[in-house]
Amino acid sequence: LWRFGSSARLLKTHHCRPAASNTSPPAVWMLLAQSPGRTPGLPAAVPTNRFFTMPQTTEDSTNPELYSPCPEVRGMTVLDREAFKKTLVVPVLKVRKEIVHALLKGLKHTVLQRPGLKRVVEDPEDEDSKLVILDPHKVPQFSLGQPEQEVLKQLHVPPEVSKYNLELTYENFKSEEILRAVLPEGQDVTSGFSRVGHIAHLNLRDHQLPYRHLIGQVIIDKNPGITCVVNKTNIIDNTYRNFQMEVLAGENNLVTKVKENNFSYELDFAKVYWNPRLSTEHGRIVELLKPGDVLFDVFAGIGPFAIPAAKKKCVVFANDLNPDSYKWLLHNCKLNKVDSKIKAFNMDGRDFLLGPVREELSKELTPAKEEQKTAFHIVMNLPALAIEFLDVFRHLLEGEPCSAAVLPTVHCYGFSKDENPAKDIQERAEASLGASLEGRCSTYLVRNVAPNKEMLCITFQVPADVLYKRPCPAGENPASKRLRT
């Protein structure tokens, strides 16, 4: 077994020849040894639950996994960083210190470009020289092509390519490379996550669960600022829109602070709903509002629609049933200095619509105020259920309809697995309202939630014949009117 110390040494040197005249078979970069006593050509036997920590020397340019960790880490469930040590034999050029910069510029497509690895290292044999590491994929035969040799000739650099032992450690591998080497071959690798302040939020699949603690630790190691990794353990199916989670690695602290669209929010991620993927959508809706408009946020959460709207000098009524969301909503209103501009409620969404919303609309939408330019917006961001709440608008108000220009605009969110999600959302909204929205609504694709599952927003003005219950003519019995019709 070949072993190399932390200070790599320069190996055998040979003169490179022009590519056209190189008729010898290509040099093969091979794994020199994997375990003691191994017979060349036979697979190494790996004892169960044991992982080698000795560095590997690889010289295989034809292998696309040249920078992959050692195969012995496959199946590891408890992170052993020492097991990832590996030594590659890479091509280098010996160059005088004063022309290193010029050489890097001239051979910019040939020198090593891997993040985290130095392209220029000390020459252990000559303090006046440096060793410039070349990309082993670009110089697989330790022989430079004609264009590269021309660059060397102009810089008066000897056309000799040497071999250098480059040691890779756990720190040199990317998180995806580590996880791909550890998890079962051919299985999906989790390297992406949602970041909520110092928390990384994963949605692991069943085959990844045995490795969940290792995955969590790798994410902490490779992402500065992440100090806690959690995995969702159930879907959002409860009244308060939060979910159970398991802390996989790091500190057990789920109170965090995030920034979105230049606003700060603090929250307990275990008790309230927060999705960083909705940042663009929050901004899109707030952009539609004008100073002086009225916003009713039916499922407000911790305030990502309400707080920016209040900062825009809108009149805001914000509601959430979850007492923890309500608590953090009040906290974030103070944090962003809009607590005097938002009326907050801790009610069921239906009760909020039938109570404060109806009361405010009844007061504002009167014939005497038809000339006002105030617009009324109702945001209903509870995509699993919000469409079912639209029936509340049936005869929500009494009296003669006001001008169509001031009828409230609803932004209602929903999920769809239909082949035509926009049509599906519209038809479900129409069924709940009891009226057609054809030609008077728009749908916006917010994001893809899962394969064949979309999140959409349908926007429409509540039709006057839906919103208003007209009074019967004086002296007429409502029952007799129904009999005539």
Automatic annotation (TrEMBL):
The keyword DNA-binding is annotated on this UniProt entry: no
Which molecular function terms from Gene Ontology are attached? tRNA (guanine(37)-N1)-methyltransferase activity
Gene Ontology CC entries for this record: mitochondrial matrix
Q: Does the keyword tRNA processing apply?
A: yes
According to UniProt, the reaction catalysed is: guanosine(37) in tRNA + S-adenosyl-L-methionine = N(1)-methylguanosine(37) in tRNA + S-adenosyl-L-homocysteine + H(+)
Q: Which UniProt keywords apply?
A: Cytoplasm, Methyltransferase, Mitochondrion, Nucleus, S-adenosyl-L-methionine, Transferase, tRNA processing
Q: Which PROSITE patterns match?
A: SAM_MT_TRM5_TYW2
Q: Which SUPFAM superfamilies match?
A: S-adenosyl-L-methionine-dependent methyltransferases
Q: Which residues form the SAM-dependent methyltransferase TRM5/TYW2-type domain?
A: 193-464
GO process annotations (BP):
mitochondrial tRNA methylation; tRNA N1-guanine methylation
Family matches, as HAMAP family:
TRM5
State the family named in the UniProt similarity comment for this chain: Belongs to the class I-like SAM-binding methyltransferase superfamily. TRM5/TYW2 family.
Name the PANTHER family for this protein.
TRNA (GUANINE(37)-N1)-METHYLTRANSFERASE, TRNA METHYLTRANSFERASE
Q: What does this protein do?
A: Involved in mitochondrial tRNA methylation. Specifically methylates the N1 position of guanosine-37 in various tRNAs. Methylation is not dependent on the nature of the nucleoside 5' of the target nucleoside. This is the first step in the biosynthesis of wybutosine (yW), a modified base adjacent to the anticodon of tRNAs and required for accurate decoding.
Q: What is this protein called?
A: TRM5 methyltransferase
Q: Upper taxonomic classification of the species? A: Eukaryota, Metazoa, Chordata, Craniata, Vertebrata
